[in-house]
Amino acid sequence: GLSIYYGDLLAPLLEKYSVWYPKWETNENTCSNDGHYEPYMKKSNFVKGTLEECCNTYYSWAFDECMVLGGADQSSASNLDYFYVDYYSNSCKQSCFKKDGTDTKNCGGI
Q1: What is the pLDDT of residues 25-72, one digit of tens each?
Q2: Closest alpha carbon to 60 in 81, 47, 44, 79
Q3: What is the pLDDT of residues 73-86, one digit of tens each?
């Protein structure tokens, strides 16, 4: 008879969605576990086991922003109000929550 081991079928799928990779193709400083990473990322060890590890490795200058954009609770943001370079806009941004455009700070989000 034919035997199917569901573990053999599910393990590769679960592994794909349980790793975090840097979202370099977007202008967001964050990591994702949506499973849409390029094959080279896995082969070159760019994928990490946790959001925190991925943010710390690839977005250390915008760690809090990376964590929050990646789905962590905003209360995990520890370094509010520091400045960092936003390489996409070639400007300095302040690590603070973006508001409706009425804030006086140059908030780039956290």
Answers
A1: 888 899 999 989 888 998 999 999 999 999 999 998 888 888 888 988
A2: 79
A3: 776 665 556 677 77
pTM to 2 decimals?
0.60
* Helix spans in the chain (H): 6-17, 39-43, 51-58, 63-69
Query: For residue 21, which phi and psi values (nearest 5 degrees)?
Result: -135, 155
The end-to-end CA distance of the chain, in Å, is: 56
The residues, any chain, with a CB within 8 Å of residue 84's CB and separated by 6 or more, are 61, 62, 92, 93, 95, 108
State the DSSP code for 18.
Answer: S
Beta-carbon contacts of 49 under 8 Å, excluding residues fewer than 6 positions away, are 18, 19, 20
Residues whose CB is less than 8 angstroms from the CB of residue 38 and which lie 6 or more positions away in sequence, other chains included: none
